[in-house]
Write a structure and sequence with these properties.
Strands 2, 4, 5, 6, 9, 10 and 11 form a seven-stranded mixed sheet that branches. The chain has a four-stranded antiparallel sheet with strand order 1-3-8-7, with no helix packed on it. A hairpin with a 4-residue loop joins strand 7 (68-73) and strand 8. The chain has strands spanning 3-7, 10-13, 18-25, 33-39, 46-51, 58-59, 68-73, 78-83, 92-99, 113-114, 118-123. The protein is globular, with a radius of gyration of 13 Å. It contains no helices and eleven strands. It is an all-beta fold. Helices cover 0% and strands 48% of the residues.
């Protein structure tokens, strides 16, 4: 069974930082591009970041570019999301996802596997 398990969420103040982790098992981690999505209450899933199989290419929407950094450690089967200069609008449940295609994607339906999510709350 493929499992993606997020951790590292919590409560921080505006301007603070947080680092999320996503532990993967049941798949050949290095063969999957990985992404982060988030969902705030009453809103649709929003693309946050994508990283290629070998970690050489990353993609971000303008809403987080310059503040968030996605990375991965294939030897540890783990994906990370470093979040800096956090804002109240970043409050959401953050989920990691795996994509078998080598091409990057910001579309939720293009990912094959999903984690359960971890709550991130930013106080103003």
């Amino acid at each position: 069974q493929v499992q993606l398990v997020e951790s590292g969420g919590g409560l921080v103040q505006t301007g603070g930082s947080l680092r999320l982790s996503c532990a993967a098992s049941g798949l050949t981690f290095s063969m999957y591009g990985m992404g982060w999505f988030r969902q705030a209450p009453g809103k649709e899933h929003e693309f946050v970041a994508h990283i290629s199989r070998n970690g050489g290419n990353t993609y971000y929407p303008s809403s987080v570019k310059g503040r968030f950094t996605i990375s991965r450690d294939n030897a540890k089967n783990t994906l990370y999301l470093q979040m800096n200069n956090l804002k109240p609008e970043d409050t959401a449940v953050y989920s990691c996802a795996a994509r078998s295609s080598a091409a990057p994607s910001s579309t939720r339906s293009s990912y094959d596997y999903w984690g359960q999510g971890t709550q991130v709350t930013i106080s103003s």
